[in-house]
Amino acid sequence: MQINIQRFDPDKDENPYMKTYTVDTSAFHGVMLLDALEYIKTALDDSLAIRRSCGGGVCGSDGMNVNGKNGLACQTLLKELPEKVTIYPMPGMPVIRDLVVDMSQFYQHYDSVEPYLQSDTSDLEAEQLQSEEDRAKLDGLYECIMCGCCTSACPSSWWNPDKFVGPQGLLTAARFVLDSRDDKRDERLENLSDKYRLYRCRGIFNCTNVCPKGLNPTAAIAELRVQQSEGYNEL
Amino acid sequence: MIAVKAFDAIVIGGGGAGLRAALALGDAGKKIAVISKVFPTRSHTVAAQGGINAALGNVQHDDDWRYHFYDTVLGSDFLGDQDAIEYMCKEAPRTIIELEHMGLPFSRDENGKIYQRAFGGQSRFFGKEPVKRTCAAADRTGHALLHTLYQQNVAKRTQFFNEWFVLDLVKNQHGAVVGVSAIDIVSGELCYFMARQTVLATGGAGRIYHSSTNAYICTGDGLAMAWRAGICLQDMEMWQFHPTGLYGSGILISEGTRGEGGRLLNSQGDYYMTKYSSMADLACRDIVARSSMEEIIHGRGCGPKKDHVLLDIRELSEETIAQKLPGITEISKIYAGIDPKQDPIPVVPTVHYLMGGIPTTPYGEVINHKNGKDEIVPGLFAAGECACVSVHGANRLGANSLLDIVVFGRAVGQRIQEVDNASQVQEASRTDIEAAFSAYYEMEERTEGDAFVSFREPMQRLMQDDFGVYREEEKMQKGLGSLQELRQNFHKSAYYKDKSSVFNTSRIEAFEMRNLLDVAVSTAQSALTRKESRGAHSRVDYPKRDDQNWLCHSIVHYDGGFEKRMVNNSPKEVEPVALKERH
């Protein structure tokens, strides 16, 4: 199989370029694209830079753009790829080197939604109760692995990278707005109430289409808008 | 000139133990930094699935931490330190409630309380009745825990140095640890992180084996740097083989799968665990792993090579599978191409967890055991998988590792608050600092030799073949010899071709390889020396537990020396658990 990878080392390359690797998939153990990339690194070209950690789709390290679609290399089956594969770093984020992108802004948006439970409860000795129904509202939200595939696939994030929170940050915001234990719903909705932070989403579902965990950030964004329309106490 | 960054305390590692320690240190008002080679939520804690043990009694109200204590001591095959186990089990309920308040999205029962499930080796009334003690967020408890702890650190504005790789400890002439040498992966810049207190929370080292449930990043960095700094390692032969690593990729399939009712199956259609243990599929992991190996060895394995077994959850309700095991359903589909509702999951015992590590007190202070004496290493702490408190002894109970990391991560932070003294002189001479960078310069300057990566496969093969579930003298003797030779050659000739500065993963992996080799050698030394079978350490030539000679920790020194160290049998509030056989 032929794997084309965009390469760039800021110390020696003026511009990114494509490099082609011919890979015999029977030469290594493993069935995923990440196994092929590890093989390239080990046997063909040690200078290729990628991020990877768990290799099992839970750490979110190895997001990349494979044949035009963002996804995790560790859960992309080689047998489901065509003979020719083209890999770019995730779009919309500055490239540090090869397939490694700078995710600082992505993390800043995450931080900006205050991604932590804020509860006024004073009884710290006992667990807070939460009904099974209330807990079920967090399903589809808390499982996010912060790989960045969604935000990197979102045109609204490309146009307003500094102002639009992006699908990942908004999914996280919804995770806390909908948590029955959280007492800062109004503040959280207010925090998203300008023209850009929440409302730049145009509902095109790119995020949902690429999420390797099968989550639906577009639905989470819609839920936040519903919550806003239902009203909250402005601060 | 090497840059210097100064802190009161630094935490090496951004997994569960490191992040919990950071919160405690932040609460204590210390100027701290967390140094992690990956963004914290990429740490391996994220991959834990089944849950975290605490005798909350949400399901059976008569559960008690004393039963949890008993199970953990018995599970450890009496190699666990009973004072530390007592502390952990007693602290567990309050620790879970603390995590709940931090926002951890636990699954809930019909009363709105934290959901608890059955897990291996857990009982009530000292082994008499089964119990549901494992608190869970579906089968993604590690993910939920790690993200919650990271979120709390965002709230507390903890300072992170993400994608920095620590090379070695900096030790001064008085034997105190005064920080670490490190490299910024993104820029290639070197830095001496100066600190009065250094916390190692670097996790496990499963990558010494060929097949492992562990992430690529589990390379034993903290273990190796402590060992090289002259600090002993303890019980390094004690590697847990998880009974249900996914066949092929080795990805973890949670013990919670059996906790919810899943059963192991051989090629003849027998649910074989009833034959081996009264606890059947919920026996301790060492027992289940050996039972599966027996099935495979006796030709009852599955598949064309008869080299694995099956995990059957087809009888579980759709609701249980959807709500309690969504993660393993997803993993089975993606990585094994099967729907576990229709077909059983192919699994095989796979290296999962190191019970041994850097010996510490129950407060996380690092102990150096030399010439029969325990000495506290000034300025150094350890918590989590890299530490050996020891609460897991020779076999860890499932769902005790997440508990370990939060209980002892917090304990380390609190201990530092008690002992750290700002006026304490912490001097490192130029020579001390340079010593911690010397290996870096040596390999950086080497432009020819053997590619560092060529050492990986031979090491992993040796570990897999000679230090697996079953072990014997002759193979281990040869294995140790080969590993030592491999390590020597590595020090003489290993190099990386790519000398670029920016995000040079080749360089980082070369230093990880150096660490892996140290951990592999320490495991081999310990395994060869312990002439008995206890917990996860099964020797075909010494098949019995030998309490007369081996009811002790094994201590290995970097120079090859070996010592025995007493196990603590003195819990404070309860009677110690008396020796007995395990079934």
UniProtKB/TrEMBL annotation, chain A:
Q: What does this protein need as cofactor?
A: [2Fe-2S] cluster; [3Fe-4S] cluster; [4Fe-4S] cluster
Identify the EC number(s): 1.3.5.1
Keyword Oxidoreductase annotated: yes
Judging by the UniProt lineage, the source's domain of life is Bacteria
Gene3D superfamilies listed in its UniProt record? 3.10.20.30, Alpha-helical ferredoxin
**Limits of the 2Fe-2S ferredoxin-type domain:** 1-93
- Name the catalysed reactions: a quinone + succinate = fumarate + a quinol
InterPro entries from the xrefs? 2Fe-2S_ferredoxin-like_sf, 2Fe-2S_ferredoxin-type, 4Fe4S_Fe-S-bd, 4Fe4S_Fe_S_CS, Beta-grasp_dom_sf, Helical_ferredxn, SDH/FRD_Iron-Sulfur, Succ_DH/fum_Rdtase_Fe-S
Q: EC class of this enzyme?
A: oxidoreductase
Pathway involvement of the protein, from the record? Carbohydrate metabolism; tricarboxylic acid cycle; fumarate from succinate (bacterial route): step 1/1
Q: Where is the 4Fe-4S ferredoxin-type domain?
A: 134-164
Cofactor: bound how, per the entry note? Binds 1 [2Fe-2S] cluster.
PROSITE patterns, per this entry? 2FE2S_FER_2, 4FE4S_FER_1, 4FE4S_FER_2
Q: Name one Pfam family in it.
A: Fer2_3
Question: Member of which family?
Answer: Belongs to the succinate dehydrogenase/fumarate reductase iron-sulfur protein family.
Database matches in NCBIfam families? dhsB, PRK05950.1
Q: What is this protein called?
A: Succinate dehydrogenase iron-sulfur subunit
Organism of this sequence: Candidatus Synchoanobacter obligatus
TrEMBL record, chain B:
Q: Pathway involvement?
A: Carbohydrate metabolism; tricarboxylic acid cycle; fumarate from succinate (bacterial route): step 1/1
Instruction: Show the Pfam families listed in the entry.
Output: FAD_binding_2, Succ_DH_flav_C
Fumarate reductase/succinate dehydrogenase flavoprotein-like C-terminal domain ranges (all copies): 456-582
Q: Does the keyword Cell membrane apply?
A: yes
Please state the protein's primary subcellular location. membrane
Limits of the FAD-dependent oxidoreductase 2 FAD-binding domain:
8-402
* Subcellular location field: Cell inner membrane
Name its co-factor(s): FAD
The family annotation for this protein states: Belongs to the FAD-dependent oxidoreductase 2 family. FRD/SDH subfamily.
Q: Which PANTHER family match?
A: SUCCINATE DEHYDROGENASE 2 FLAVOPROTEIN SUBUNIT (PTHR11632), SUCCINATE DEHYDROGENASE [UBIQUINONE] FLAVOPROTEIN SUBUNIT, MITOCHONDRIAL (PTHR11632:SF51)
Q: Know the name of this protein?
A: Succinate dehydrogenase flavoprotein subunit
